[in-house]
Amino acid sequence: MVSIKLKLKTKANVDGEHSIVLQVLKDRQKKIIATGLLVKKEQWDNKEHCFKTRHSNSMQNNRLLDTIKIKARNIISEFEIDDVDFTLNEFENRFRFGSKRSKIDLFEFWNSVVKDLELSGRTGYARNNRDTIRSLRKFHKKPVLHMREINVTFLDKYEVFLRSRGGSNGGIAVRMRSLRTIFNLAIRRDMIKQNLYPFHKYKISKLRGKRIKHALTMAEIESFRNIDCEGDVQLLNAKNYFLFSFYARGMNFADMMRLRWSDITQTRITYARAKTQGNFSLKIVPPVREILEYYNENRRDTNYVFPILLHDALTPMQIENRKHKILSQYNKALKILAQKAGITKNVTSYVARHSFAMCLREKGVSIDVIGETLGHQSVLTTKAYVREFGVEVLDEAVEVLLW
């Protein structure tokens, strides 16, 4: 059973006006859709859900409300005729964008997706999408971009635009993958037809970078461990973060940042990787224990292990902003540490992960075990072995780094 009703939002704006919204109820779930109309409480008929005659434009506005209700009912009827057990999100998409798929405005749809990402706490992913939308707006130079306008020629020209602004293959690929994801989402939600999909012919794989991934050797890792930070707390933190990441199976910065004392027992660290939600259980090897003991002795009034997130009750956006700020400081400190260690390679936070893999390989560990320790889920050469390696095998793979 689906019901629709026009009602006022509780909170008024500075002029004392309330937004009129369409409320849709289905299977005990509710969806609120703004109509764009405003009214003061005393000019609204709560019983009839319409403007009172005392409102100067009551007749015209009530016709608009009737049109909105008719549109909503027609959409529900279309779903019922097609025998579709629709979701409220599907209803909203049809209400906002209509059934004429070719007229979907990419920017409007994409912004709604970004809002959903922010609400779900995926602020980093939302930021990347906002950056791509901003870039695409600069290229298109028009407020509306219909999805049917995006074809191979459009993408080729967008690629040229990005290159003209200093874009590298890797950076351009990030933008194109974001755009491809939105197309896939629109197709999955039945908002556009499959034949409008431009990525059958435009291949993002051609942008795959051939850049050499920097990695430190075991000798360089040892030099890094022996650096004297001379009491500089920021350098000491950067050194600890890098070595912790290296000896904790290449744990990335986002997961280190969120690591809590409650994730740690006497012998193991257990956590879910933010990027893939895969569960990891790591044996605490001596270098990791040493770093944990340091931060336990200098423990702050939070449950976080590292002094990156300074409060337990931060919002997703505050966490994202803090991550952006500290990661920048961390990478700058790594440049100084590398210079102190006599390392000429470009050392960044991600080099710890690459170094972990390369040093395991240097020690003769098989590629399949390395892939498993890193949590690679999409690499075909590791997928076949996902269930064949026990946790002991993975622990032993890390321990060879201590020999």
From TrEMBL:
Keywords: DNA recombination, DNA-binding. It holds the Pfam family Arm-DNA-bind_5. The keyword DNA-binding applies. CDD domains: INTN1_C_like (cd01185). Transmembrane segments: none annotated. Residues 211-399 form the Tyr recombinase domain. It comes from the Bacteria. PANTHER family: PHAGE INTEGRASE-RELATED (PTHR30349), PROPHAGE INTEGRASE INTD-RELATED (PTHR30349:SF64). Belongs to the 'phage' integrase family. This is Phage integrase SAM-like domain-containing protein.
